[in-house]
Amino acid sequence: MRQKIGFFSFTCCEGCTIMFLEVLNTKYFEYMKKMKIENFRAIKSDKGIKELDIAFVEGAISTESEIRKLKEIRKKTKKLVALGSGAINGYPSNQRNKFDTSKKKEIQPLIKKLHQIREILSINEFVKGDDEIPGCPVDKNLLIKKIESYLK
Amino acid sequence: MHSNSFDLNIKNISKIEGHTHLDVKVKNGKVTECKLKISENKRFFTQAITGLNYNLVPTTMSRICGTCSSAHTLCSIEAIEKAFGLNVSEQTLMLRNLLINAGHLRDHAMHLYFFCLPDLFNKDSVLDFSEKGIEHELVHDGLDIKESGNFLSTVVGGRAVHPPNALIGGFTKFPGKNEIQEAIKKLENNREKIIRLIDIFSNQKESFKRKTNYVSIVNSDYNYLKGMIKTAYGTVIPEESYGEHLQRVVLPYSTATAFTWESKEYMVGALARMNLNKESLNKNTIKETGKYLKIFPSDCVFDNNLAQAIEMLHEVDNSIDILEKLNIEIKNEKPIAPKIKSGIGIGVIEAPRGTLYYKLELDNKGIIKSADLCIPTQQNIIHLEKDIAGYIESMLKENKNKKQISFEAEKMIRAYDPCMSCATHFLKINWI
User: Fold this and answer.
1) Any idea which architecture A3-150 has in CATH?
2) Which of A75, A81, B237, B284 is the most buried (most CB within 10 A)?
3) Closest residue in chain A to residue B10, using alpha carbons only
4) DSSP label at B412?
5) Which superfamily does B45-167+175-423 belong to?
6) Beta-carbon neighbour count of residue B366 at 10 Å?
7) What is the DSSP letter of A151?
């Protein structure tokens, strides 16, 4: 049975999923025998979050709707893996948390207008993850090692 | 007979970079509203770099977008070097050209093979492509081409995403001769594959033509880093004067702002570059693609895909030329240390999706006082909305149904190759 996989991007540069796509340059045909990609908006239509074996999540959390989506992913996946520094510790999307008072005042109308939450946070603040793969972007060799251990 | 008045809402458009929705209102066969609602979450980068030391800027701005990270790195470097009056070595320029070529090559390959090709084969995704025959071969081609770009980015920049080796004043590491020769071999192996792709996109059936303005950097060797800014209406200006021609436009329904050129919509990207500068392509590329080049200048937005495919061959041929020169001699040059002074620096380059502008103001300690960016996708938004409106009206006249119209509108958005991560970096804006 192929494992059902999803990739999800929150507030970030999407560099970690690009690293995964770079890994696929040489691993595509091998991995596709072992995984079935169910959710990955960059390469297939979005038809809602599916029941998954592994969900890879990149990016930090900046809105209520992202919190809801993250919790839904958590409910529907057996394993949740945080990809890269955005998901793991919020950086660099969370730069605004440490802005001085004048910068904070300047961006406040936008925060309100865009319905962003008070501080941009890592996914761990909202759900319990099962594994983390660090880096900005995620380290390619470590990513390969982890994926291959999950697919065993 | 279907209704001539309806709303069309496409949520979470797939196979593009980032998050966006499209909302269209049609009344009696006319499009009364067409809004590309970019919903990518803002991360306040221009704000984050004010107060930052100049040498932290390239690695910070790279994080605006994983896809376009080399472009943001190199454009911010150029702005800072201009502010300091720093001129880099010939070898540094060659390595920077390789890095930007590699970025374009990976990015165009991702867009054409993985975002656009499924539309041509009536499939949702390359994941659904057959495991035999032409579909299988094309997936293979796309992966191989991406891998050659990835390899070139890695040996020059240190990594394909957020390249750590490229700094103000030069590079910290250099490819060895073995790596140079391997890169040449990988690139050469891809020429035939790219030519096959060019032929496929030259036969694309979709068409929507509109006389309009195009803007890009032009120069004598189709490089992406230096030149004059030219428009299809014949204006040619130096990079530093861009501010006199560009105007920021607020879109209250989007997390991105847009731009106009002399108060009118315009288009940037591969189609603009091909329309304005095709004579300067690499001579080997011209030799191979003569019959396809005749299509340009083109007023059809779908030819942006063909232009990208031809550019891929140019990126391969141009990179091989540079690598062959470096193969004769490559030196371990130390990055040139800048003489820090206050000033304003303007960086202008051709990112994969079009002209990217950075204006950075520094104080006499090398601290960023202000930052102003203009991103390719922001420049294309108004043009894209008008094209979609026009395209939908033409399809209504052909009695196409809502499902067909929706599918075609998505294809048009994909042809523009928008990047939403990039489009929402900014802050300076007055909400109405």
Assistant:
1) 3-Layer(aba) Sandwich (3.40)
2) A81
3) A46
4) H
5) Cytochrome-c3 Hydrogenase, chain B (1.10.645.10)
6) 19
7) T
CA B104/CA B145 separation, integer angstroms: 11
For chain A, what are the domain ranges?
Answer: 3-150
Q: Which two tokens stand for residue B236?
A: 């040619």
Query: In a mutagenesis test of the B interface, which of A5, A20, A22 is the best target, namely the one with the most B β-carbons within 10 Å?
Result: A22
* Beta-carbon separation of B14 and A46 below 8 A: yes
**Which residue is listed with tokens 């979470």?**
B12
Q: Which of B206-209's residues contact partners 24+ apart within 8 Å by CB, and which partners?
A: B206/B302, B206/B408, B206/B411, B206/B412, B206/B415, B207/B300, B207/B302, B208/B300, B208/B301, B208/B302, B208/B387, B208/B390, B208/B391, B208/B394, B208/B412, B209/B299, B209/B300
CA distance A93 to chain B (A): 5
Q: Which of A10, A25, A31, A102 to mutate to test the interface with B (most CBs of B within 10 A)?
A: A25
Q: Reduce the DSSP state of residue B53 to 3 states and report it.
A: strand
Contact A15 B161 (CB under 8 A): yes
Task: Produce one character per residue of B195-234: b if its CB has 16 or more CB atoms within 10 Å, e if not.
Answer: bebbebbbebebebeeebbbbbbbbeebbbbbbebbbbee
List residues in chain A touching B: CB distance below 8 A: 9-19, 21-22, 24-26, 28, 32, 37, 41-46, 62-63, 66, 92-93, 95-96, 99, 103, 106-107, 109-110, 113-114, 116, 120, 136-137, 140
* Residue B27, helix vs strand vs coil: strand
Question: φ and ψ at A143, to 5 degrees?
Answer: -60, -45
Contact B127 A32 (CB under 8 A): yes
What pTM did the predictor assign?
0.95
Dig out the tokens for B99 from the structure. Answer: 């890095």
- CB-side exposure of B21: number of CA atoms within 13 Å? 11
Q: How far apart are CA B428 and CA B79, in angstroms?
A: 19
In a mutational test of the B interface, the residue from A8, A10, A18, A91 whose CB has the highest number of chain B CBs within 10 Å is: A18
Q: What is the ipTM of this complex?
A: 0.94
Residue extents of the structural domains in chain B: 6-38, 45-167+175-423
Report the distance separating Cα B334 and Cα B173, nearest Å. 9
Residue pointed to by tokens 């003489």:
B339
